[in-house]
Design a protein that fits this description.
By secondary structure, the protein is α+β, with helices and mostly antiparallel strands. It has helices at about 20-30, 30-35, 40-45, 50-60, 105-110, 110-120, 125-150, 155-175, 190-205, 230-245, 315-325; strands spanning about 10, 15-20, 65-70, 80-90, 95-100, 190, 210-215, 225, 250-260, 265, 275, 280-285, 325-335, 335-345. Strands 2-1-5-4-3 form a five-stranded antiparallel sheet. Strands 7-9-12-14-13 form a five-stranded mixed sheet. A hairpin with an 8-residue loop joins strand 3 and strand 4 (about 80-90). Helix 6 (about 110-120) crosses helix 11 (about 315-325), helix 7 (about 125-150) runs antiparallel to helix 8 and helix 10 runs antiparallel to helix 11 (about 315-325). The mean pLDDT is about 80.
Length: about 350
Amino acid sequence: MFALPLPVMVVDADGHMLALNDATQEYLQISATRSIGQSLRQLLGEEHMLIELVHGVHASGTPTQERHVLIAPHGGNRSHHADVFLFPMTAHDNTYGIILQPRGFSAHIDQQAAVQKSAAHLSGIASILAHEIKNPLAGIRGAAQLLALGAGADEKPLTQLITDETDRISRLLSNMEEFGVNSPQTYARFNIHQVLERVKQLALAGFANTVEFIEDYDPSLPDVLGSKDQMIQLLLNLVKNATEAMAHMEHLRIHMRTAFNPGLWVLEQGTHNRIHVPLEICIEDNGPGIAAEMKPFLFEPFMTNKPSGRGLGLALAAKIVSDHGGVIDVDSKPGCTIFRILLPMKK
């Protein structure tokens, strides 16, 4: 739990600090040495909501949560708003875990419902695109098969790649015809690392042949339940966006990471239910970052600052992630942009 990127604390029933992780020290600008043994009253004030929440969990023995809590440590020069999750560490030892989820992340999750609604308006456009693209796609596949007949050993993998990709795009186009419809999906289990490897292969063979790819994968990550084709499309879009953002740079780098974070939870849209989203997939680039004026609308359809862009890629990404029961978020500053996908672990 203490390896989590989120601030985490452990307190006793009276609110005395027993442990805290590095993220808490950075977030609240406090040191573990001085804070261990202090009470939340000393740290945050006599009447702070967090103290009441600890007492409530102690009395009920059940987890609780509170949204948009002001966290302003005494003596600090910064205040924060966070969603707070509290839970008993064990059944009998009267210790309680506190996870602070900064509102910069959770507020964006709150926007996902509006994004999904906007994305549904693309259904008519998707149907037209699917009809217009499928015919030339069949011609491309046929041409690749003819080229394969006379191809050498070094060239055959490329012609096979074209054939496989035209088949995948054709399947995606069929799915896009139902882009705005919440119809039942047939999902299967797949290895997300194999998907990332396929995405890298496609990118290097095309638009990202000058990019340095760095892979940092958690081998313990379980298989994902979902659509392998959609996940390839989603991650390929993110890699393509990153490559285009770095187009005028000399050293292009994309870092692909996975992690299993058992302590990550988000609130289900429109409810107070928590969803466990321990599967984390990150696409990070070293580009110039996302313009501040674009960030609030990043996942909305038709929002783009690219001269030739249509603003559909990230809207589609948001819908794919939502259909898989997860959330997508972005953290961006000059020199580092991270798209983070959190997915549930389904049985």
